[in-house]
Amino acid sequence: MNTTEITLPLVHLNGTGETTLRREYAKLYLALSKAEDALDELTFHPRDYYPLGVEAFAQAVEERREMDMSLTRFRQYIRRHVYALNKGKAPIPERESSKR
User: Fold this and answer.
1) Nearest-angstrom CA–CA distance, 59 and 49
2) How much of the chain exceeds pLDDT 90, in percent?
């Protein structure tokens, strides 16, 4: 993926509604942010890997780092969508069903 240009959805008459796109991308962005937080909060300790051999924890650290970087890149990708869809727009009102 080119880090400077991405293909963004275009709001038009035959496409998905602007409010729907804005809500769904914002929801996904928040979910990805929560996933990153949850990953950071996971217990990750060598004691859970040493029975697998001396290299197991180092391998797990590398795998975790790669997954964390992938999750961060995806969140940043979605953030660019959220920004583009919301640029210059008024905030979206809450749905009636979510007001409690």
Assistant:
1) 10
2) 82
For residues 36 and 94, what is the distance between their CA atoms, to the nearest angstrom? 25
Q: Is residue 11 part of a domain?
A: no
Confidence band, pLDDT 50/70/90 cuts, at residue 4 = confident
Q: Which domain holds residue 76?
A: 18-25+33-88
Q: pLDDT > 70: what percent of the chain?
A: 92
> What DSSP string runs through the chain?
--SS--------TTS--HHHHHHHHHHHHHHHHHHHHHHHHS---GGGTGGG-TTHHHHHHHHHHHHHHHHHHHHHHHHHHHHHHHTTPPPPPPPGGG--
> How far is the C-alpha of 40 from the C-alpha of 24, rounded, in Å?
24
Number of domains in the chain: 1
3 in any annotated domain? no
d(CA 75, CA 30): 9
